[in-house]
Design brief:
108 residues, two-stranded antiparallel sheet, mainly beta
C-alpha cells in the first residue's frame, strides 16, 4: 500500500514537485482551530547542499521545533485511523508418523 504520491517535472523556470498525501494518513488532535508545523527539505548531492523552506539553524538542537507554521485550519475532522497488517505465511514441516497416518485417514 502506498501512502504518498509524488510527481516531479521541469520547465523553463526550474523543477516542480507535487506531493499528494492521503487525508487518512494524517494524524492530528480534535480541535476547532488547528496549527500545524510544516517544513520541506531538498538535498542537492552534487553540491552537498541541504535547503529548507523554513530556515533550519544547525546550531539549534532539533529540526521539528524549527518548522514553519500552517495556521487557519478550521473545522477539519480527524480521519479514522487505519489498521494495516502485512502477513507473511510461515510454514514448517514438522510431522510425526502418527500425525501423517491420522491426516491421511481423515482426507481419504
Amino acid at each position: 500500500m502506498q501512502f504518498w504520491y509524488s510527481k516531479v517535472s521541469t520547465d523553463s523556470k526550474g523543477w516542480n514537485v507535487e506531493i499528494k498525501i492521503p487525508y487518512q494518513a494524517l494524524r492530528f488532535p480534535k480541535q476547532d482551530v488547528q496549527k500545524w508545523g510544516l517544513n520541506f527539505q531538498r538535498n542537492i548531492r552534487r553540491y552537498r547542499e541541504i535547503d529548507y523552506w523554513n530556515t533550519v539553524d544547525p546550531k539549534v538542537l532539533g529540526v521539528i521545533n524549527q518548522c514553519g507554521d500552517l495556521d487557519g485550519l478550521t473545522n477539519i475532522i480527524s480521519p479514522v485511523a487505519w489498521l494495516y497488517f502485512l502477513t507473511f505465511p510461515v510454514m514448517q514441516k514438522i510431522m510425526t508418523t502418527e500425525m501423517h497416518i491420522l491426516l491421511t485417514e481423515e482426507w481419504m
